[in-house]
Structures are given as structure tokens and as C-alpha cells.
Specification:
Blueprint lengths: L12 H7 L4 H10 L4 H19 L2 E4 L1 H16 L11 E5 L26 H8 L3 E6 L11 E2 L3 E2 L15 H8 L5 E6 L5 H6 L3 E4 L22 E6 L5 H8 L26 E6 L8 H16 L3 E6 L6 H12 L4 H7 L16 H14 L3 H22 L3 E4 L20 H9 L3 E8 L5 E8 L4 H15 L11
Parallel strand pairs: 2-3, 2-6, 9-10, 9-11
Antiparallel strand pairs: 1-3, 4-5, 6-8, 7-8, 7-12, 11-13, 12-13
Helix pairs in contact: 3-4, 10-13, 10-14, 13-14
Length: about 500
């Protein structure tokens, strides 16, 4: 018989720690076998989130009471007969900009604070149908439009390893929730690194799928004319969860016109035998940390030991790609973000008092839009063509192999250090333009105790290769290292 919602099982501290270090796949197996109950697993993750969230501000609206009830229902289902879904009883979290029925869906925009969707986004519904239990929704940059997560509704999210550092963005709440151990896996969105950067900053895995693999239905803001740069994707504390969750959320939904049937091969260690792995040199503006490049090189050496063949190329054109991509976003959407805000009832330029409804990052973006709008069309058109040309050149270099590239120039920066600096997205932008799959892989902790990492980039449709490399690099470097303070 299922326990009542107010009957909280006693979980020994060491057991809880073990639960919140396991992968979603391991937890699902333990729940099905009866080694753990769904209620125990759910309680262990809620306990972590309740303890760390006052410092992190990762989960901005929870559904813990419903989650406990759903965990009891999962346990009752396991006791019965029938085929069990693959993630039955496994807790997950979801970026607030992806619709969860009855939960806030503002994307950090004050004018949308009242929004409560009547239905799940496609990707959320697919996880729920697979048996997952949604614990809550997580913080984002205002309008999902910057690589730090702060807005005027929920405030700022802090890094899981150091509260004075950014959690990244725009899926920063998701990165911090998973990086703290409060969730084994979660959903985010990625246009210009919004999965990869938070995953990097918080020491976990993040996968931006190939364009068209996962539907965007139910995500806000709408992708407008740059849907091929956008993707829903996965943030996970263990690499073995990436492909199983990707399989669950992938495929057409008859709503998103870009989402189609794309084959997903199983990642295996054999994928790396003889595979060409490219390392790009001379691609960075001044300021890229030697620690980032050394971590990338160690990753290349590990893949070489696994049978890959590493080559190095020069591509100085990547130094300007972040700035060029912001022009692409402005030119190809067909809609300025100021117009998107006005359509929601916001008045982006009417409030001159500080702080108002908009963050500094958003005001900088809106100002950038106005400046870009005044540029000669011949100049912006050339910038768009150059950006796409660089992305095409990069994909030709990748081919059927992989490319390793730092996710950020340095470890997670202090709060506010990226605002007004579009080149901060240099390391992630080109791969979004190309619509390629990218897996951010943690590579341990650096000298300051902050996460290191690398992007593993594949050609479109080769998600299995980037994930195969992530599995190998996890074996070599240990993957996610739980923050010490989460057990304090």
C-alpha cells in the first residue's frame, strides 16, 4: 500500500547522500527492483534542494507535495503488474521557461508573472509519460536572453560551488539544481549556450541536441526565425543519462515544424576507435585562461588513449563569432526582442527609474538591438553571411568526427562580469549557428575549486558521438564532483 503524503520516510544520512549521487538510470533500476522506493528517492532530492536552495535560488517554484504523492503512486504501480515506464519514480527539474502544467511560466519577464500553463510542454509531457516526477521549475535569465540567470521576479541564481559566482545562463537554475545534487537530470533550452554554460559553471553534463531532434513546443520565448539555432536539451549529473533522456524527449510532435524523425544511435566506446578529434588553436580573444586550454588538451589526450586521432587546426575567424551571432539573432528573427516584450504587456523603454522591471543584461540587449537597427543593411547583411560562413567552415572541419573547445574563457566568473560583453558567448556561438550537437563535459575542479569543462562538438545528427566521448571523459576524469558545501 502506498504511504500517505504526510508520511515521510526516515532516510539515513549516508543513504541520502548515495541516492543524490546516482544517475537517473541507476535510480530507475533501484526503484523497479525494490532496492529503493520512489518516495525515498524523491525525499532525498527534496531534502538537498530545501537545504541548498536558500543559498542558490535555483528552484523558483516547487511542487514537492504533488511530487510526494506521485512518488507514492509510483511505488503502488511497481507493486502491481504491467510494463513499467523507464523513468518511473525518478525526480527531475525543469527550466521555468518550459511549460509545466499549473506552474509559473514567465521566463523571468515581469509582465508574464501571472502565466500558468494549462498543459505541459511536449518534452515535459514525454518525461512525465516516462514516469518522471517533476520537483519544480528553475530560474532563468530574463527572457532567456543572457548567459547569467537573474530577473526581477525571482532574483539571481548562485553557483553550486561558490555563491559569489554565476550559475551561468540562461538555464542557470537548472545547472545549479543538478550541480548541487538536488536533481539527477533536468530540462533546459539552448540558443547561445544556455545549457552548455550553466552545465559548465556547475560542474555537470549538458547536451544541446542536433537542430530538429527535439521539439520546442511549449517553450517561451518563441524562436521566431532562428529556430534552427534553438533546442530543448538535457542537463544531467551523470553522462549515462544523456542518451536515455534524449531518446524520451526526441521526435516530432505535429506542432513544431522543425522537429522530425532523426535516427539516434547508441553511444559506445567503439565509436572512438580511429575517430578524428579536432582541437582549434588561435580561436580566442585575449583573456582566455590557460587553465581552460590545459583542461581541453587533457581531454584530447584521454580520447587519444581511447583510440581517437587528434589533429590541431588554426581558425582565427572564431574570435569574432559571438558578436557576429548577436547580429544574426537580431537580423534573422524578424522580430526585435523589444517587440516580443511589448506583446506580453511589458514596456521595455518606459521605466527610467532603477531597477524597474528589467535587468541590466536585458537593457543592454535592448540597447544593442537599437544600435544594430541603425547600422547599414549592407553591413549587417555582410555580418550575417560571414557568421554563417564561419559556422559552415567549422562543420566542414568537424566532418564525421568531433571537435573539442572550451565552454567559457575562464571558470565561472563573478556575478555581472559578462553583462554587456557579447563576445562572452564566443566559445559557444558557432555551434548554435551550425545546429550541431554539443555535449558539455565536466573535467574536474580547477585551482580555485571551481569546475573545469570542455565542449564536445559533432556534426549534425551525430549526437551519439559527442555522448560517447562524454562517457569516456567521465571515466577518465570522474565527471561530476559534488560540491563540498552541499553536505555541510
Amino acid at each position: 500500500m502506498a504511504r500517505g503524503i504526510d508520511s515521510v520516510p526516515e532516510i539515513k544520512w549516508g543513504v541520502a547522500m548515495g541516492i543524490t549521487q546516482q544517475s537517473a538510470v541507476e535510480l530507475a533500476q533501484a526503484i523497479r527492483s525494490g532496492t529503493l522506493s520512489a518516495r525515498e528517492v524523491t525525499e532525498a532530492h527534496i531534502e538537498v534542494l530545501e537545504r541548498v536552495n536558500p543559498a542558490l535560488n535555483a528552484v523558483v517554484a516547487d511542487r514537492y507535495a504533488q511530487a510526494r504523492l506521485e512518488a507514492d503512486q509510483a511505488d503502488a504501480r511497481i507493486a502491481g503488474a504491467g510494463i513499467l515506464p523507464p523513468l518511473l519514480g525518478v525526480p527531475v527539474t525543469v527550466k521555468e521557461s518550459i511549460a509545466v502544467e499549473g506552474m509559473p511560466h514567465s521566463a523571468g519577464v515581469v509582465a508574464r508573472a501571472h502565466i500558468r500553463p494549462a498543459a505541459h510542454a511536449t518534452v515535459v509531457q514525454r518525461l512525465v509519460d516516462a514516469g518522471a516526477i517533476v520537483l519544480g521549475v528553475t530560474n532563468t535569465a530574463e527572457g532567456c536572453m543572457w548567459i547569467e540567470s537573474s530577473n526581477r521576479i525571482y532574483g539571481r541564481t548562485n553557483n553550486a560551488y561558490a555563491p559569489n559566482r554565476t550559475a551561468g545562463g540562461s538555464s542557470g537554475g537548472e545547472g545549479a539544481a543538478v550541480g548541487s545534487g538536488g536533481s539527477p537530470v533536468g530540462l533546459g533550452t539552448d540558443t547561445l549556450g544556455s545549457i552548455r554554460i550553466p552545465a559548465f559553471c556547475n560542474g555537470v553534463f549538458g547536451h544541446r541536441p542536433s537542430t530538429g531532434l527535439v521539439p520546442l513546443t511549449g517553450a517561451w520565448p518563441p524562436p521566431h526565425g532562428v529556430a534552427r539555432m534553438c533546442s530543448n536539451g538535457v542537463i544531467a549529473r551523470r553522462a549515462e543519462d544523456l542518451m536515455p533522456v534524449l531518446r524520451i524527449i526526441a521526435g516530432p510532435d505535429s506542432v513544431d515544424p522543425l522537429a522530425g524523425e532523426l535516427p539516434l544511435r547508441e553511444p559506445t566506446s567503439n565509436d572512438l576507435a580511429g575517430l578524428r578529434v579536432t582541437v582549434v588553436e588561435d580561436a580566442f580573444l585575449p583573456g582566455v585562461g590557460g587553465e581552460m586550454l590545459r583542461a581541453r588538451d587533457r581531454a584530447a589526450e584521454a580520447l587519444e588513449r581511447a583510440g581517437a586521432k587528434v589533429t590541431r587546426v588554426s581558425m582565427k575567424s572564431l574570435r569574432a563569432i559571438g558578436l557576429l551571432t548577436t547580429i544574426v539573432l537580431a537580423e534573422e528573427t524578424g522580430v526585435r526582442f523589444a517587440e516580443t516584450l511589448r506583446a506580453q504587456g511589458a514596456r521595455p523603454w518606459s521605466q527610467v527609474s532603477w531597477p524597474g522591471d528589467h535587468t541590466t543584461a536585458m537593457r543592454s540587449l535592448l540597447l544593442g538591438e537599437e544600435l544594430e537597427r541603425r547600422l547599414p543593411k549592407s553591413l549587417t547583411g555582410r555580418a550575417v553571411r560571414v557568421a554563417h560562413s564561419i559556422a559552415e567552415q567549422l562543420m566542414a572541419t568537424v566532418g564525421d568526427g568531433l571537435l573539442l573547445h572550451p565552454t567559457m574563457p575562464t571558470v565561472a566568473p563573478r556575478h555581472g562580469r559578462t553583462v554587456g560583453r557579447p563576445w562572452s558567448a564566443n566559445a559557444v556561438a558557432a555551434f548554435s549557428l551550425a545546429g550541431s550537437p554539443v555535449t558539455q563535459v565536466p573535467l574536474g575542479l580547477g585551482a580555485a575549486g571551481l569546475p573545469l569543462g570542455v565542449q564536445v562538438v559533432g556534426g549534425p545528427g551525430n549526437d551519439h558521438l559527442t555522448i560517447a566521448a562524454a562517457l569516456e571523459l567521465e571515466r577518465a576524469f570522474g565527471g561530476w564532483h559534488p560540491p563540498a558545501q552541499r553536505f555541510a
